[in-house]
Amino acid sequence: MPDICLYIIVYIDELYSILVFCQTLITLMLWNSGIISAPHFYVSKGLEEKRDQYIDKMRNVSANGDWESWCIFFLETVNEQAIQSLQVAENIRDLYEQMKEAFADCLSSRWSINALDFVFKNPVYRNKQFVSNAGIPSVTAARFTRELHKNNLIVKLEEPSGNKSALYSFEPLLNLVRV
């Protein structure tokens, strides 16, 4: 029985390494193609939070051949992380739905969904990016920035300086995804 556990754990470890590599590769490809504004790499939060337990379980495997406990620990941790990640995704979806109404009320424009989509794709951005890339007429985009800031839907992180436009953030989304 321990031999099969050894093969399973080696397989899971290899599979996990491959998944991390693929996640890294996909992130870099999305960044390179301009779909995301910056690469963000994520180490499994669950395993990072339980790092000491993970190491203890691996030591127990080496000392006592207790693969079963390690497998159970690993799979439970992955399951917990999956549940947490699903909750974050649902919270993001709920926030998007709430913000549809908030942006529509604040902006009173047919372009409000364009503005909302932009801040969800670019939760930290320079105003120049918003004006250039949101698909909104530039005069309207400039007004939107003022209105969104005035209504506390976005936060100004940096004042404009020289050739740099102001830097803004969409904190409700960032608060959901910060690790």
How would you describe the oligomerization state of the chains in this entry?
single chain
Percent range for helical residues?
A: over 70%
Catalogue the unreliable spans: none
Proportion of strand residues: 5-15%
Write the layout of secondary structure elements.
Blueprint: H1 2-32, H2 45-49, H3 51-64, H4 67-107, H5 112-121, E1 124-126, H6 127-133, H7 138-150, E2 155-158, E3 167-169, H8 171-177
Helix pairs in contact: 1-4, 3-4, 4-5, 4-8, 6-7
Give a quick precis of the structure.
By secondary structure, the protein is mainly α.
What does this protein structure show overall?
By secondary structure, this protein is mostly helical. It contains eight helices and three strands; from the N terminus they run αααααβααββα. The model has no long low-confidence stretch (mean pLDDT 81).
Keywords for this entry:
mainly alpha, three-stranded antiparallel β-sheet, 179 residues, 6% strand
